Automatic annotation (TrEMBL):
It comes from Lentzea miocenica. Pfam families: ABC_tran. PANTHER family: ABC TRANSPORTER I FAMILY MEMBER 17. NCBIfam families: 3a0107s01c2. The keyword ATP-binding applies. The keyword Cell division does not apply. This is Phosphate ABC transporter ATP-binding protein PstB. SUPFAM superfamilies: P-loop containing nucleoside triphosphate hydrolases (SSF52540). CDD domains: ABC_PstB_phosphate_transporter. It comes from the Bacteria. Keywords: ATP-binding, Nucleotide-binding, Translocase, Transport. GO terms for molecular function: ATP binding. Residues 2-250 form the ABC transporter domain.
Length: 254
């Protein structure tokens, strides 16, 4: 589904990723793990064409979405964005906008048009998929900012689903949440994975083990740019990694 080939990235003249390749199959959850500063978020932003928005940031390599390079000069930025949703560490719904309108906000940004009844159906569908419908169906006109942190994050997931993306990128989506909210998001991820390809950055090894089928271990050693030390089926990365540094990291010896 999403295939990153030999991605290198720079901020100014500082190289932060060195020839990172990762194939992320359809209908699966891929976890990106590794210490802070090794380029996981940068890699995720490259998958969504957000890296190029940072002044002075450059990259090399290609990202294929269903076989097509999202960086192809003839493709519009919104083209990739429509197909690749993103959820961040800190829930960021539009706080003053209603829950209902938050879900639909992405449609306007990407230029998708829908009639009134289609929109209402979409709001229910996306909130249901994000596991939030039952909690908010009677208060859709209340502001997004009135929800709890965990609910706000599920609202952000619902918002990202409204454009029917093929891929959902999640950058430490549970780091700011309590354990109960975290479990609910993990449940949502498991359900969504049947229809959306998910890539999640997490510092929580139990979470990586619970939600992902594939895992990639990123590392940037002493001033060198980040690389993927190894990637593969999550079970193998955790139980029989081929590199000692992976074993040390997943067992908390870093
Ligand atoms: P991770 O998500 O694994 O913690 P990041 O991708 O955030 O790592 O960062 C990788 C490296 O790139 C770090 O050394 C970080 O300081 C640097 N970096 C990240 N964002 C920027 C930016 N906007 N400008 C300059 N350097 C950045
Ligand atoms: Mg990060």
């Amino acid at each position: 589904m999403l295939d990153a080939r030999s991605i290198s990235a720079w901020f100014g003249d500082r190289k932060v990723l060195d020839r990172v390749s990762l194939d992320m199959p359809a209908g699966s959850v891929t976890a990106l793990i590794g210490p802070s500063g090794c380029g996981k978020s940068t890699f995720l932003r490259i998958l969504n064409r957000m890296h190029e928005l940072v002044p002075g940031a450059t990259l090399a390599g290609e990202v294929l979405l269903s076989g097509q390079d999202i960086y192809d000069a003839s493709r519009k930025l919104t083209d990739a964005r429509k197909q690749i949703g993103m959820v961040f560490q800190k829930p960021n719904p539009f706080p003053a906008m209603s829950i209902h309108d938050n879900v639909l906000a992405g449609l306007k940004l990407t230029g998708i048009r829908a009639g009134r009844s289609a929109k209402e159906a979409l709001v229910e569908e996306c909130l249901s998929k994000a596991g939030l419908w039952n909690e908010v169906k009677d208060r859709l006109r209340q502001p997004g900012g009135a929800l709890s942190g965990g609910q706000q994050q599920r609202l952000c997931i619902a918002r990202s689903l409204a454009v029917r993306p093929k891929v959902l990128l999640m950058d430490e989506p549970c780091s700011a949440l309590d354990p109960t909210s975290t479990r609910r998001i993990e449940q949502t991820i498991a359900e969504l994975a049947h229809e959306v390809t998910i890539i999640i950055v997490t510092h929580n090894m139990q979470q990586a083990a619970r939600v992902s089928q594939q895992c990639a271990f990123f590392l940037a050693e002493q001033g060198t740019p980040g690389v993927i030390v190894e990637s593969g089926p999550t079970k193998r990365i955790f139980e029989a990694p081929s590199d000692e540094r992976t074993s040390d990291y997943v067992h908390g010896r870093f």
